[in-house]
Amino acid sequence: MILEWVSYIVFYLLAAVFSVFLAYCLHVHHVHQKYDHLPGPPRDSFLLGHVPTFARAMKSDSLIHDLFVQWGEKYGPVFRMNSFHQTMIAVHCPEATKIILMSPKYLKDPSVYKRLFNLFGKRFMGTGLITAADHDVWYRQRRIMDPAFSSTYLRGLMGTFNEMSERLMDHLEEIADTKTPTIMHDLVNCVTLDVICKVAFGVDLNFLKQTDSPFQNAVELCLRGMVLDVRDPFFALFPKNWKTVQQIKEAVELLRKTGEKWIQDRKTAIENGEDVPKDILTQILKMAEEEKVNSAKDHEQMLDNFVTFFIAGQETTANQLSFAIMELGRHPEIYKRAKAEVDEILGTKRDISYEDLGKFTYLSQVLKETLRLYPTAPGTNRWLHEDMVINGLKIPGGCSVAFSAYVSQRMEKYFKDPLKFDPERFDVNAPKPYYCYYPFALGPRTCLGQVFSQMEAKVVLAKLLQRFEFSLVPGQSFDIKDTGTLRPKSGVICYIKRCS
């Protein structure tokens, strides 16, 4: 009797599992029928879609964005990609880019950005400025933070930009005396991390003097974790990866606990009437008080943005600087022209003023061209909630639309000889790219810190050109490494020599 009942239960369970699986397969078939009129690469399998292709690209250490460029060239400005039951539409059509990214009605795709809410189960970026899909949640945060990035406030940061950059110059002088090669990415990464700590949170950590900093290591681990968690849904399931997953979770916890301590210390200092730095944190707390943003939920959101500042604000500028140094080292004629401009504007003076930044015309072109070839944050996604016709193709609503600056900025149809590093593309008299150049995104969700980032990059690069000659160590790779943001694979290994 018992065996009979067990057999019935097993039968019904198997029938239920089969029914669910069949329903899922029918749903996947429906999704395919809905979007298969769009061009796109053949799927690896019915259920997995292109997931195996993405996994192979990651395991082979090749850059997955180069695969997207190949697909863009082959299948045109609109093509589909499948992952399980989801379809993502890749778009590099300037007209559609303008319509969708410039309008607030097309929200960030929650299915993409909610993957960054947690990192392997630990709250990571939560509902911060980058990840908040709900427009009202994002807008309230943006309204609070906007004053901290106003031109008036940013002008006051020049002293800090100069101070932190001088630390790098002093360090490079020591390296020049040893005549040994150095990894430039590691050094500029320390500087940009010092800058964000100082100008945002009033904390001076001097990472150039630290070795094996737990905080810096935590940022690195989180960046790695972003790629693993977002692109490999099965990573945490394999026992061989559990140690790495645990290390990433501990890194997230360290960042959030550090943020909690710094924020609480500042709140206490303000409540006690102490003098506090007029930095970004003070401005945010002041605005939050005026907006009556004081709940536990709001506190967690503040920590979300603490993590966002370090992951997005520091890493991207360091990567841009590294790529710029790499390309200047590869192109002596561009290097000489940029240096000549810096020497003419600065002469022998050490401190760079806010007014000087506007005079660095060619240096600005170098930095813009660097972001064209190497957009450190390569793309963004929006949710298409309604049917739309793009480039003559009807796109049914209810799907994610991916915009890749990396793809559009490396396409021959938009930029002649796209793999050539040519700052002249951004000369004031050159034709302007039409909605195919957007390293900081576009529209209302454009990067809040882009002016901050480019001011910092100009100061560091100008001082470097003014004081040193650098040459690339032969034989190193000029490939790109994907760590969630894009950075030089070799780290840019240089010989440093003082200018005579």
From TrEMBL:
The record's InterPro entries line, in alphabetical order, gives: CYP46A1, Cyt_P450, Cyt_P450_E_grp-I, Cyt_P450_sf
- Example of a GO biological process term: cholesterol catabolic process
Q: How does it sit in the membrane?
A: Single-pass membrane protein
Listed binding positions for heme are 447
Task: From the Swiss-Prot or TrEMBL record, state where the protein is found.
Answer: Cell projection, Dendrite; Endoplasmic reticulum membrane; Microsome membrane; Postsynapse
What is this enzyme's catalytic activity, as reactions?
Answer: progesterone + reduced [NADPH--hemoprotein reductase] + O2 = 17alpha-hydroxyprogesterone + oxidized [NADPH--hemoprotein reductase] + H2O + H(+); cholestanol + reduced [NADPH--hemoprotein reductase] + O2 = (24S)-hydroxycholestanol + oxidized [NADPH--hemoprotein reductase] + H2O + H(+); desmosterol + reduced [NADPH--hemoprotein reductase] + O2 = (24S)-25-epoxycholesterol + oxidized [NADPH--hemoprotein reductase] + H2O + H(+); 4beta-hydroxycholesterol + reduced [NADPH--hemoprotein reductase] + O2 = 4beta,24S-dihydroxycholesterol + oxidized [NADPH--hemoprotein reductase] + H2O + H(+)
| Keywords on record | Cell projection, Cholesterol metabolism, Endoplasmic reticulum, Heme, Iron, Lipid metabolism, Membrane, Metal-binding, Microsome, Monooxygenase, Oxidoreductase, Steroid metabolism, Sterol metabolism, Synapse, Transmembrane, Transmembrane helix
Please give the superkingdom of this protein's source. Answer: Eukaryota
Per its record, what are the GO molecular function terms?
A: cholesterol 24-hydroxylase activity; heme binding; iron ion binding
Pathway info: Lipid metabolism; C21-steroid hormone metabolism; Steroid metabolism; cholesterol degradation
TM region(s), chain numbering = 6-26
Q: Name one Pfam family in it.
A: p450
Q: Which family does it belong to?
A: Belongs to the cytochrome P450 family.
EC code(s) of this entry:
1.14.14.25
Q: Does the keyword Transmembrane apply?
A: yes
Keyword Magnesium part of the UniProt annotation: no
Q: Which cofactor does it need?
A: heme
Query: Which protein is depicted?
Result: Cholesterol 24-hydroxylase
Functional note: P450 monooxygenase that plays a major role in cholesterol homeostasis in the brain. By promoting constant cholesterol elimination in neurons, may activate the mevalonate pathway and coordinate the synthesis of new cholesterol and nonsterol isoprenoids involved in synaptic activity and learning.
Q: Which Gene3D superfamilies match?
A: Cytochrome P450 (1.10.630.10)
Species of the source? Sinocyclocheilus anshuiensis
Q: Which PANTHER family match?
A: CYP46A1 PROTEIN-RELATED, CYTOCHROME P450 FAMILY 46 SUBFAMILY A
- List the taxonomic lineage: Eukaryota, Metazoa, Chordata, Craniata, Vertebrata
Q: What class of enzyme is it?
A: oxidoreductase
For this record, the Gene Ontology CC terms, alphabetical, are: dendrite; endoplasmic reticulum membrane; postsynapse; presynapse
